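Q: What would this chain look like folded?
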Amino acid sequence: MPEVIELERVGSVAVVTLNRPESLNALNQELREAMLLALEEVRLDDSVRVVVLTGAGRGFCSGADLSGMRNSDEALTQTDRLDEYGWVGRQALAVFGLDKPTIAAVNGVAVGAGMSLALACDIRIGGPTTRFKTVFLERSLSPDAGMTYFLTRILGYAKAAELIFTNRSLDSKEAMALGLLNKAAEEEGGALSEAIEVAEQIAKWPPMAVRASKRVLQHNLEVVLSEALLYEKAGLRLASLATNDRRESLESFQERRPPTFTGT
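A: My prediction, written as structure tokens:
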């Protein structure tokens, strides 16, 4: 894995760290591509049950690296021109489409596409230095990387509109009050340890059932009740494919002992 990404395993938890601390982990081409490779690696690894995304140093992610932006369309390759989603779209799809729980340990600033990256995760955990800012209008841009999709669903239309239109910063206290953060560690540097703790709580459950649950939750964001009920039924069938875990859940309950799930 390239040096701009660190991939560490803590038991069944994979910690993916954006590693450009000198730029507050700004997303240049190398980092963007390395992150997609890391996410694909953990997606295919059955030993990984939960993924934590964080940033090295003082920030989570300061958004797109403007110093590396192309000055002219002449530099675009044919592949670039045919990419209807662009890197911002592929980032959103890779994180949101990962059918394992994802937790953003927001250990500092998360702005622009970096804020969108945190929003694409299922759970967000911050700390004393956490700061969110949409920042797009400040750059004379409209939001991308999925921000308009994720932020409206997390906070509702009116609050999302306010944050985008005013471009004001949110500290961890307000982010918690709004529901943008699930938890906020009190001590400096505590976001990652808190995120790993939550990840370990999730990782102890049957992985097939967890992955099926995430698929159902995401699908049912967009459908009417009748279709949601059908997809819940389909999710039950997916979860039940892990016959050993299903048996273990019943036997451990009957024997009054903690279960041990293998994903089989």
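The chain is about 45% helix and 15% strand.
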